[in-house]
Give the backbone structure.
Amino acid sequence: MSEVSKEKMTRRTYLKYGAGIVVAAAAGAAAYGIYEATKPPPAVAPPATTTVTAAPTTVTAAPKPTPTPTPFTGTLQLYAWDYHPELIKKHLGDFENLYGTKVNLNVTPYPGYLSSVQAKIMGGASVDVIYVQLKTQVKWFNAGWLRALDDLPGADDIKKGMFAAWLPRHTHPKTGQLITLPYWVGSYVNMINDRIRKENGFEWPKTLDDIYNQCKKLSAKGMKAPYTAYWSWQLEENVVNYIAGEGLDLFDSEGRALFKDDPRTKYVLDWMRKMVKDKCTSPTILTDDVGPIVTAWLNGDSYINNWHTYFIESYNRSGQGKELGNCKIPPVPPGSAQKTIAIGDNYGMMAKAQDVNAAWTLLRFMGAKEPKTGKFEVATAWATETGLMSPYPDLWDDPGLKSSVSTWADFDLFRKYVGEYSQPVTFRQNFIWYDEWVTYMEDTIKKMVVGQVPVEDVPKKLADKAEELRSKA
Amino acid sequence: MFGLLLCLPSFLSVVVLNIFPFLWVIYIAFTDVNLYKGTITFTGLENFLSVAHSEDFLSSVWLTVEYSAYVVVGASVIGLLIALVLNNEFRGRSVVRSLLVIPWAIPWIVNGFLWSWILDANFGLVNGILFQVGLINGYIVFFSPELALPLTALAAAWIQSSFTGLMCLSGLQAIPHDMYDSADVDGADVLQKFRHITFPWIRPTWGMATLVNAIVGLTMFDLIFIMTKGGPGTSTLLLPFLVFRQFFIALKIGEGAALSLMLTLLVLSVSLFYMILLYRRARFYR
């Protein structure tokens, strides 16, 4: 056999065996799939369950390890996303100085946070305290990942110390158990360039139509992006906000759509369509990222920006641009109901925390009044340094905080927005199918905004999709 | 036997890093994964049917193929032209050749931000230049439903033309110069020399670069994520972005896996088509 043919034979043999292994593995995977499909359900030891008789579902309460009396000498594990990690580290250093407990900070980039930490939790990573997005906290609790906090010292006082309207964002919708503490809270607001408003003789906008009319006039004068919002990536928040501003909830407590035949839905959708069609928005509102939106506002190319309250701090204090300091918010939120939505993120304690006492001490240090010092240590720092607020009236009464926030916002009005005008939108956290519905809703409304789907078809399409997903769940 | 043993480490790494994840995706595609309960339930073809019946699937497939075609045409043609130019003698050639590497060396995400700002409708470089020289009265919205797809493809073609140019340049430098001397003696003009010597000689290289360009186009995620997020509307909702959305936003892991498999099939089909198209006559020149 020649050298050439030897080489050919070897390669062929190699490929043949390789292909054989791949085929065998594929067959194995398929067989495993069939086995999984046909095997009986596993015998599971009965977990500690709380059956809620009034509700159609059974809520599994997380196991509650008994607090240990001995001091914790290990290192706590905190999982967070990457917003100002240097500040988080500073806070954890303060915590170590106060209690002598070390905390290891695990930072994950925000865009992939959810998938990344969920994979780590499922993989058995050691996590004690974790940043929790509102939309996942009930699901994480029901999955047994988060621990209820009611039985821990001071939990009742924490609940009593919050603005009442904000409590549903931290409790389980069916059992009322406290499951998270606040990392930050804010409201959706229309941030208005007050210089432009006064120069054009505009009143504060009181309705969506006022916003349209003012933006249309500015567009006619050549303004490039009179109205901006993060429709490209957070359209759901905007839509929920606009509709809540008209006094309508999208879903009831069972997930049934309330918007299908309500004229307020069509009013909001019509408004969104004509805002784009009549050039009242940034021309690229469906693709704009954070950078262009903020730059447009600070350069005076934009008049109204509909976004989170902490941007007021950027527009009046820490940003850069000729319009720095001109940001004001209307005395009441525009819309017939004069309401806006509460937003923010939370901290939670894992059910498998190494030491419940130590984790609770850290959780309270970060998300409530610190019992040793009697102050909102971390919450005050976030508020003064970045504009991220907390839902505790006591915190807002702090004169130091008031003087700090007053350098970039009308403090009393800001407090009214957070304490009175903001309403928690609990349907965003309660239904397992909501995320899937949101992707459909955003696609449909984006198509509507660019004229690919008629406005009048949208409410029915969205309601039908919600019902389809709800019935499957 | 000893040779096979030597291959074992790399074979194992391929199994662990490629074959196992691929088989796992196949398995997941036939299941319903509930992340919160930690359960995996076999559902047969349900994910595939659900995906196939969704409103966005077919348009997304078509957009992906269209996007890939733009990238192939832009990158492969421009890359070839760049290589032909840089193969000629001129002052500063080595500097220009070095510059050719720069686009290819830029990460996709940076490239996405770069082109976003170049084409921005409010502050963009292109709009600024056109406005300053008086060619436009108002700024052009480049990321409109009509223009977003070709312009995001342009950003991809910019990087890939650099890659194609480098590949073709190496192919051009391997052509024996006496072939051109013979052609000169026979009286061949520039186009005839290109058609009968240059292109046949670099065809395998150019073909491989074109195939890579096609695959880059079919699997593009980074630029879409940065530049348009699938919009405006669903104008740039390519299959890889749809996969990402199903996996990480809607958290429909099974459907995401089913879509991934469909994307893989699409890439394999298109790649096969290109291979047949590009290599069917190549054997004449071996």
Chain B is about 70% helix and 5% strand. The first strand of chain B starts at residue 31 and ends at 34. The two ends of chain B are 34 Å apart (CA to CA). Chain B touches chain A through 52 residues (CB under 8 Å).
